[in-house]
Amino acid sequence: MSTVAAASDAAQLKSAREDIKELLKSKFCHPILVRLGWHDAGTYNKNIEEWAKRGGANGSLRFEIELKHAANAGLVDALKLIQPIKDKYSGVTYADLFQMASATAIEEAGGPKIPMKYGRVDVSVPDECPEEGRLPDAGPPKPADHLRGVFYRMGLDDKEIVALSGAHTLGRSRPERSGWGKPETKYTKNGPGAPGGQSWTAEWLKFDNSYFKDIKERKDEDLLVLPTDAALFEDPSFKVYAEKYAEDKEAFFKDYAEAHAKLSNLGAKFDPPEGIMLDGVAGEKFVAAKYSSGKVRELSETMKQKIRAEYEAVGGSPDKPLQSNYFLNIIIVIAVLALLTSLLGN
Ligand code: HEM
Predict the structure, then answer these.
(1) Residue 81 has pLDDT above 90, yes or no
(2) Positive or negative, the Cα torsion across 209, 228, 256, 114?
(3) pLDDT over 90 (residue 252)
(4) CA atoms within 13 A on the CB side of 295
(5) Is 177 in the pocket of ligand 1 (CB under 6 A)?
(6) Is the pLDDT of residue 328 over 90?
(7) Least confident of 21-30, 157-166, 291-300
(8) Structural contact between residues 37 and 98, judged by C-beta atoms closer than 8 angstroms
(9) N or C: which end of the chain has fewer CB within 10 A?
(10) Is the CB of 168 under 6 A from ligand 1?
């Protein structure tokens, strides 16, 4: 087990992402990789300033002591699946690989593009692992209060709790791991991947909004509803979002993508501090921001995407400003048009 703590390298990150896609195609392991990323990040405590005591996306989940936490039952299998990719790319940290595997799994399962950035630094030793008990229970006495207690500690709000819970559109619960779910159902008895467990949705390798539809209807005994899932339609504040997502897949995808990216950054220390972005969206050195106000100011991801789309529509890019003769060309075209109009007018 490597204890390398350095941050990641962009070229290697891109290759690693291709390897993750291949792994997903052959193993159908999308759900467990999403759970791996979530359980590394979800230990974050916003009330603790010190890295890595605050927990979060720092690769600590690779250490046995944390993998043995009850909430992480079964995740050693996820680590085994991606360890060969880690071994291949010394320039990719565990913290980045866990989050990349999760985001790529969502995207490859048909979910939204997650505006990810990379460059997370790994913790180096097991002593830096968080104590047990920071992740949510599935069956606490007051599920809504419990969810708020855990997710508010991470700095996430009601909308984000509901959106992120929608990740249960993927995967299964296994009694031998978490104690929840049936040993098998008509949807899981033949896999794909290792058979068994109980899924929240019929097509549990497809990312869509069926989780919200299914827990609302509760018509199928073969589909799982944990007490914390049920709370999303019982609590008045959660319910607003759960109803919306059951109706509107696009609204769910938009909120999910934002919440997932936020979750993936919790507690992380980035090197370089602005992060490394691979697809021209999150964490980029956004030169365009300089043009508007004269000072560099961090824009929201949505705004960056809008600006990028506008630049790209005219063949440019915010980090590669348009060539000056582009404007000259426009002026020439306008002048020619004006000339033609006046000639035709005569
Ligand atoms: C809201 C509080 C949550 C609770 C109480 C909860 C609980 C659980 C439980 C009990 C399992 C079954 C594990 C097993 O038996 O293998 C599970 C699986 C899973 N969870 Fe959650 N979870 C929560 C939130 C989340 C979030 C925020 C995400 C991701 C963003 C997530 C993603 C998953 C996935 C993808 C699986 C399926 C894993 C597989 O098929 O191997 N969960 N969760």
Answers:
(1) yes
(2) negative
(3) yes
(4) 1
(5) yes
(6) no
(7) 291-300
(8) yes
(9) C
(10) yes
What pLDDT does 339 receive?
A: 83
Q: What's the confidence (pLDDT) of residue 317?
A: 57
Please state whether the peptide bond connecting residue 112 to the residue before it is cis, i.e. omega within 30 degrees of 0.
Answer: no
Residue nearest atom 37 of ligand 1, based on CA coordinates = 171
Distance 168 CA to ligand 1 centre (A): 6
Q: How many CA atoms lie within 13 A of 104 on its CB side?
A: 27
Considering only 110-124, 180-194, 297-311, which range has the smallest mean pLDDT?
297-311
Judged against a pLDDT cut of 90, whether residue 322 lies above it is answered with no
**Closest C-alpha among 91, 96, 30, 90 to residue 62:** 96
Q: What gap in Å lies between CA 7 and CA 223, rounded to an integer?
A: 41
Task: Give the active site residues.
Answer: 39
CA 302 / ligand 1 centre spacing (Å): 28
Q: C-alpha dihedral over 170, 234, 42, 126, to 10 degrees? A: -100
Predicted confidence at residue 84, as pLDDT, reads: 98
Cα–ligand 1 centroid distance for 154 (angstroms): 17
Q: How would you classify the pairing of strands 198-199 and 172-173?
A: antiparallel
The torsion angles phi and psi of 46, rounded to 5 degrees, stand at -70, -15
pLDDT band at 343 (very low <50, low <70, confident <90, very high): confident
In eight-state DSSP terms, residue 107 is H
* Alpha-carbon gap, residue 322 to 220, rounded angstroms: 56
Pocket test for ligand 1, best of 29, 168, 207, 260 (most atoms within 8 A of CB): 168
Rounded to an integer, what distance in angstroms lies between the CA atom of residue 74 and that of residue 336?
69
CB of residue 170 inside a 6 A radius of ligand 1:
yes
Least confident of 26-30, 85-89, 146-150, 296-300: 296-300
Report how far residue 345's alpha carbon sits from residue 341's, in angstroms, rounded to the nearest whole number: 6
